[in-house]
Amino acid sequence: MLCYQCEQTANGTGCTVVGNCGKSPEVAGLQDLLIHSVKGLGSLSHHARTIAGIEDEQVNSFLLQALFSTLTNVNFDDERFKVYIDHCTRLHKQLAQKMAASGKKMPPTPQLAFFGNMPHPMDWNSAHAEIDGVETIPELVDVSMLASLTVRREILGATVAGLQELVTYGLKGLAAYAAHAEALGSRDPEVFAFLGRSLWFLSNEESTDVGNLLGMAMEVGACNKRVLQMLSEAHSDTFGAPVPTEVSLVPVEGKCILVTGHDMHDIHQLLMQTEGKGINVYTHGEMMPAHGYPELKKFKHLKGNYGGAWYQQKKDFSYFPGAILATTNCVIEPMTMYRKNLFTTGSTGLPNVAHVEKVWGQDFTPLITRALALPGFDARGVARAAAAREGRKTNVTVGFGHQAVLGVAGAVVDAVKTGKLSHIFLVGGCDGHEPQRDYYSKLGEQLPKDTMLLTLGCGKFRVYDQEFGTLGDTGLPRLLDMGQCNDAYSALVVATELAKAFKTDINSLPLSMDISWFEQKAVAVLLTLLSMGVKNIRLGPVLPAFLTDEAVQVLVDKFDLKPADVSNPDQDMLKMMQRHTESSLVVSSPFGYGLGITGARSYTQKAGGGTYGTSKRPANMRTARLKMRAGMRWLSGVLHCGSQHLPREEDTHEPDAFARGSRAAAHQGALQRTEDEVAAAERAEAAELAAAAAEAQRLAVELQALERLERRAAETAERVEAECHAAASAAAEVERQAAASAAAEAQRLAVKRLERQTAERAERAERQAAECVEAEFQAAASAAAELEAQRQAAERMEAERLAADERHAVELMAERATAEAADKYLASVCLSVSLSSPRPYEQADAEVQAKHQQAERLGGQGMAIGCSMQQQDGTELPLVFKCGWFSNCPADKNTERTRDLLCEALMMRDVECRGGLPGVPRTVLRALGLVKSSKPGTGYPVVWVDEEGRQQIRRLLGFLTERMSCDMSVLLTERPSSFPAPEMLPLMRDYAAGITSMHAIGIAHNDGKLQNLLVELDASGRPVGLKVADLGVAMDVGTEVSSVGSCNYTSPEIVVARDSRTKVETPGDV
Fold first, then answer.
1. What is the 3-state secondary structure (H, E, C) of 230-242?
2. What is the pLDDT of residues 67-86, one digit of tens each?
3. Under the phi-then-psi rule, with left for phi > 0, alpha for psi from -120 to 50, and beta for the rest, what region is 1021?
4. Terminus-to-terminus CA distance in the chain, angstroms?
5. For residue 597, what are the β-bridge partners?
6. Does the predicted model carry a pTM greater than 0.90?
C-alpha cells in the first residue's frame, strides 16, 4: 500500500500500512485497480468520441461516479469497489462493440514500461470483461499490487509519478464537482470530452514528461473552473441564489435527521419526503450553507445546524438522537453506538452500513423509519446542546454567495478607497484534526479591525463562531461565509469583479488567499486558481506529499506559492498585508533603533491589542526594550526643552510698550531662573546620560557574550540539524529500500500466486478434459458396437430384397453420373420432412429442390429433425436427426451426454408413407415416403464386388443423430407450474440462437411448437441446453405461405395475414 493523496498522510510521506483516514490496504488496492480501469475506459471513450463520433452517456456518468468514489473519506466498502470494477469493464466491452460496429479502427494500444507487469488499462479492461466478474475480492486485491503507485514511482521516479498523481487528484476533484452538477441536471459535453482526453493522456507516453504534466495540470484547473460555474448556476437555477440567512446552532425538541456531506439535491429530496411527518432536519459540516438557498429554507422543518466540521463526526453523531444521512465526503468509520442510525447514499459507502441507492426520486423510507423509531431531542437534550455552546455564538449567518457580495460591491470599493478597509483575507478549503490547523483560528483572532474575512468550505469552522462585528461605520459584516467548497466559483467571481472595479488584476488587489487543503477537491480548486494566474497563495497546513521539492520549486518560481507559517500566524498576516501597505517614515534615535511613524497606516495594531513592529526585531529582546526606553526618554527631553523656549502667543500682540518693557524685565529675571534650572537639569541629564552610557556599555558587553553563546548554540544546532538530516536521509533511504523490497516481494508473491492459480486451473481443465475424452471414448465404443449390430441386422433384412434393389440401383446410376450428385440429392431429401401424404413427382421434386437450396446455404452443416425412436426395451429415445453437424447450441454443451448414432434404413418401395416399422421413427418414414413418391429407386448407392465377381449395389439413407433427453412439451408437463427464470433464460437464449442462425441464411422455421424444441437435462434433471428441430415446413424468405404448420401451432405470419396465403418478407416477420 502507498497512498499520499490527502494532507493527513502518515509522516508527511504516505500511508503504507493502513490509511490515516481508516482505509484498509485492501480498499486502497481496489481503488488503485479501479483508477487503472477508469483510465482504460476513459481512453476508449476518447477514441470513440474523436474517431467514430460516439458519445456514450452511460460511460460519461460512470466515470464521474467512479472517480468520485476514490476521494478521501468517501467510500470504504470493498464490495462496492468490486461492483465498480466489474461494471467498468462491462461498459468498456459494450463501448468497444459499438466502436467495432461503426467500422472505425482503434489506434494501437501503446506498450508502456511505467505500468510494470500490469497490462495497459485498455487491455486490462478487455481481458477482465471476458471473465465478467468471476474474480473474488482477494483475487482482485492480488492483481491490484501490480497497479499500485509503488510500481509507477519505482519506474518513473518520485517527481514524474507525483505530477501524474497531481493530475489524477485534480481530475478526482473535478469529477466530484461535475457529479454534483449532474445530479441537478447540468451536463457539458466538453467536460466529458476533456475527461476522456486527460485519462488517455495519463495512459500514454506523453505523461512521462514534466512539462506535459504541468501543462495538463493547468488544463485540469481551467476545465474545473467551467465545472464550478456549472455547479454554481445549477444551484442557483434549482434552489435560487443564496441570501444572507441566520442559522441556529441549538436544536429544538422533536424527532430528527442529520444530513452531512455536500449534496444539495439529496437534502432537497429528503426535505420533500419528510415534510409533514413531524421530523426536524439539521445540517452538519459543509451542508450548513443549505440554509441560504430560498427553495430549501422555505421548508419549515429545516431547523438549524448541529455539530462542527466533518472530522468531529464521532463526537457529534454519538450525541445525536436521530437518524443520520451521509450524502458525500467526508465520512468516517462509524462507532458501534450509532452505526445502525447511519445511512449512506450516492458514491459514499461504509461496510455494514445501510445504503440508499442514488437515482432520481431516491427513496429515503428506511432512513425516515429509523428517525421515527429513535427518541429525537427532548428538553434535556436541547438543554445539554445549549450548555455546550455557553460562552460562544448560538447563531451564525450564511448565504454570502457572489450575488450577495457583488450587491454591496460599491460599498466595498468605497471602503477601500477611503481607507476604512485595508485588506481582505480569504480562508478557504478544508478543515482537519491536526493541531497545526489552529493557525487559521489564531489568524482570525489577530486580524485588524479594518480588514474583512471571507470563508469558503469547512475551513469556516475555525472562525465561524468568533465575534467579528462590522467594518467601522460602513455596516458591512467583517466575516462573510461564501458557502461550501462546491461554491468556490463565488470567490472567483468576486475577485474578478473587484479587479475590474479597481481596473487592475487579481494579484494587485488588497486580497490574500490562505488555502487550507485536505483532499482532492481542494487540489482541483488550487489548480483552477493557478490556471487563472493567481499568485502569492498560501497553502497549509503542510504542502502535499505527492509533490517533490523539485515540483514545488517549479510552482514557487512560477506562481510564488508559499507554505503557511503555521507556527507564526501573526507574521504570515503581516507578510500578506505588507504587499499592499504604504511606505513608512522612520525617525532614527541616537540609539540606532527605528521608531516606526507611518505616513498612512502602519498596521501595527492587533485586533486584540499589542503591537507588531514592521522593522526587523533585535535578537536580544531585553536589549531592545532598554534601547526603546532610552530612546523615548531622549525624545521626551527634546520636546520638554523645546517647549521652555517657545514664545507665548500673547507676547506678540501686546499694545502697551510700557507694559511690554515691564513684562520684559520680569521675563528677564524669569529667564535667568529658567537658565539656572536648565543648567541644573542639564547637569542632572548629563549624569543620567553618563549612567545610561555606563549601563549601555555593560549591556553591550553582556550582549556580546550572549551573541557568542548564540553563535555557539547556532553552530551546535546546525551541526545537530545536519546530523539529524543525514540520519533522516539515511532512514528514508532505508525505508525506501525496504518499501521497494517489500513491493518487489509482494509483486513476486502476487505473480507466483497467479502462476499457481493458473497452473491449478489448467491442471483441473486438463483432468476434466481427459475424463470427458475417456467418457466419450467409452460412449463411442458402445455406440459403435450397437451400430454394428444394427448394421448386421439391416443386412439380413435387406438380403431378401437385394435383387430388386440392383435394378433400381442401375437406373439410379444412369440418372446420376457421379457419387457427388447422389450426395447432393440425398442432402436435399434428408431435409424434406413432415409431409402429410405422397405428392406427385413434379410437386415433390420442387419441394426437394427448395430444401436442396437451403442445404447449400447452410454450407453443408445441415438441419435438425426431431423424433422419438423406439429402443429394444420399449422406451422412447429422443433424437435429433441431422444431415451433417448443424447445432443451435454451443459446441461444448452436453458433451458428456452426447451420443452420435448412425441409423441405416433400406429404401423399400412397398413401405407405405403412413405405415410404421418397428424401431423406425415416423418422421423418417415420411421422409422416405417423399423419396419413394418423387423418384423410384432413390437412395445412397453403395457399390461393391462380391466373392463371385459380380457387382452388387445397395441403396441406403444415412442419418446422423444426437441423443437428447426430452422435448419441451414433456418437460413442462412433468415440471411444476412455476418454472424458475434462471433455468428458463438459458433455454430461451439457445432457442433465440437457433432461430437467429436460420434467419441469417434466409430460412424461416415456421413450426415452433413445444414438441420441436428438444431439451438436454443434467444428472439432477435440470435443463442445460435446447435445440430447434424438425424443419419439415420451413420456408425460404419471400415464399408464399400455404400451410399453417402443425395442427396445434400456427406461426405468427399466418395469424396476422388477411387471407390464407401470405408471403414471408423478412426473417423478422417470423
1. HHHHHHHHHHCCC
2. 999 999 999 999 999 999 99
3. left
4. 58
5. 585
6. no
